[in-house]
Amino acid sequence: MFLALREMRHAKARYMLILVIMLLVSFLVLFVTGLAKGLANANISAVENMPAGYFAVQEDAGHIFRRSMLGEQELKVARSVAGEEGATPLSLQMSTITADAGAAGDKGLKADVTFFAVDMNGLLAPSGVKGERITNETKGQVIADEKLERLGVKIGSFITDQSTGKSFQIAGFVKNSSFSHTPVVYMNPQDWLEFRQGTAGGQGAAASFNVIALHITAEQAAELSGKLNHAEVITRQQAVSSIPGYSEEQGSLMMMIVFLFVIAAFVLAVFFYVITIQKTSQFGILKAMGTKMSYLGWSVVGQVMILSAGSLAVSLLLVLGMNMALPASMPFRLEPLTIVGTSLLFIGMSLLGSLVSVIRVAKVDALEAIGRANA
Amino acid sequence: MSAKLIMKQVTKTYGDGAATMSVLNKLNLEVKGGEFVAVLGPSGSGKSTFLSIAGALLTPTSGEVAIDGESLKDKSKGELTRLRLEKIGFMFQSAQLLPYLKVEEQLHYVAKLAKLDAKESRERASYLLKRLGIWERRDHYPEKLSGGEKQRVAIARAWMNKPAILFADEPTASLDYKRGREVVSMIADEVKQEGKAAVMVTHDERMLEWCDRVLRLQDGVLIDM
Ligand SMILES: Nc1ncnc2c1ncn2[C@@H]1O[C@H](COP(=O)(O)OP(=O)(O)O)[C@@H](O)[C@H]1O
Ligand SMILES: [Mg+2]
Question: Quick one: CA torsion of A306, A260, A357, A311, rounded to 10 degrees?
């Protein structure tokens, strides 16, 4: 590092410029990553946060929850494999609600939500509720995602389903429960039956539901797959990526991130390649004087590490500072694990970019030193 | 005193097949401690080739080279690198200092490579820089030095690790007559002071005053003058 540090000290302007470019790129990488995670969270956090690793869905539903329809028959089979606790039905319904004028300002509020009907003693019962919990016995009470609270709905106030006119009282709020970008409203199975009788069809009588959430192992999943006739078992990730819009949204952001990584690697590769070529005769001299190839190689790698780690550190501070300044409604999320992963990948790509230069340095012959007039 | 450099029957041919060219042809040379040898020859006579082989940068086609009693035969690239670091000091045309190291750091760098401890390195550097009259310039970058000063730093750098022998490749090429003579006399001084050996190749016949022996490279062999 003796040479690496002194060279950077001597050519401050040159290295500052590349540092700034790296800083901008790494900032963008972190920002877009945070945005992708935030959007994913705002989109399907209700499913992501379920303690169920697998779901049973109807065979021809294309993995889409809303299209799937299962009955007691399948639930019985699922429970024979997963046990009573390990399988719980989930029904859902997208809807538009209005909130009382008093609760959400003078004009009242209209919002799209997704109703989830779950067993309040089962796997999917909302946890970490702020306010009152509800049980399978409560009547007309629901737990809603915090997003509704941010829109002005308060605990104790009522929301009304637009198509059926049925009203529910908000008992409490939970964090991170979105489905298809809408806040989830949880109710118990009894309220659900009543609610469905009001909607079209109203065939709620013969207990039916959309999917079965399963807390099972991979082997159990395979076993269950064999036993179910008109249903298939999919992983949570399969379920999530089949939610309409999710793959497209994440896909395009992912492409941006990948490009940014590639750009970072190329910018560094070009920068270091050009200065390495400029210094060819210098490397010859150094080798003639007895400098080991590995020492010179590590010098280049050391400089790349300093630049990429330095730029990352600064852009991390910037991103975290910006995150605090952003309003809570902005879908942006950076968890420590994501930060660590992204940072390692960024540094890894930078090192990959420096590889050409290291190879170039390795190839310089000490012989170049003799018989040359110019440095 | 023991021989610092021995070259026996050294031959170097370039090219292969029909178009071979012998640059060195069974060349012999022995340089003892305290001896300053100059090798003269016009451009293209093989001076650089000779110096590269003697300096363990290039392997001869045949023949043997030994430095400070250590034969170069069958040595790996890494072993040769280490040998250059410990036993050989180099001076190149136009000094070839690292532009981003201050004068003193140029010396500390080679000391670091040789794993000298910091105190020893500082003492040795100040001793050499003072003797060569550039102590006041120790905190300057090479770009702030004159050609003569640069070449003096190069001398100090070459002697820093107390090598057995110094090889100088036309050290006066980029200097005017006066500065050139100064540099050569300084090399000679160091050789006497440290009891080491030096070989300088040059095509400038005016620089030979302080040399103990002057040889001419002709037709691939060295001839006494
Ligand atoms: N790598 C090489 N391949 C082929 N011929 C070479 C090579 N290096 C030097 N020569 C030839 O060997 C001869 C001696 O070159 P050199 O040692 O550089 O002489 P000098 O340093 O005295 O000018 C020249 O004719 C040169 O063209
Ligand atoms: Mg030459």
Answer: -10
The reported pTM is 0.78
Q: Is residue B20 part of a domain?
A: no
Contact criterion met (CB below 8 Å) for B60 and B9? no
Ligand 1 site, residue B49, Cβ cutoff 6 A: yes
- Ligand 1, atom 9, lies closest to the CA of B49
The residue whose CA is least distant from atom 6 of ligand 1 is B14
The verdict on residue B141 lying in a domain is yes
Pocket test for ligand 1, best of B12, B25, B48 (most atoms within 8 A of CB): B48
Query: Which of B52, B53, B98 to mutate to probe the A interface, most A CBs <10 Å?
Result: B98
b/e per residue A47-84 (b: at least 16 CB within 10 A): bbbbebbbbbbbeebebebbebbbeeebbebbbebbee
Check CB contact of A206 with chain B, cutoff 8 Å: no
Q: How far apart are CA B100 and CA B54, in angstroms?
A: 29
Under the banding of pLDDT at 50, 70 and 90, the label for residue A371 is low
CA of A296 to the centre of ligand 1 (A): 28
* Domain total of chain B: 1
Residue A259 sits in the same domain as residue A369:
yes
Mean predicted lDDT score pLDDT of chain A: 87
Q: What mean pLDDT comes out for the span B99-115?
A: 93
Nearest to A290 among B92, B94, B113 (CB): B113
List the domain range (segments joined by +) for residue B211.
36-52+82-224
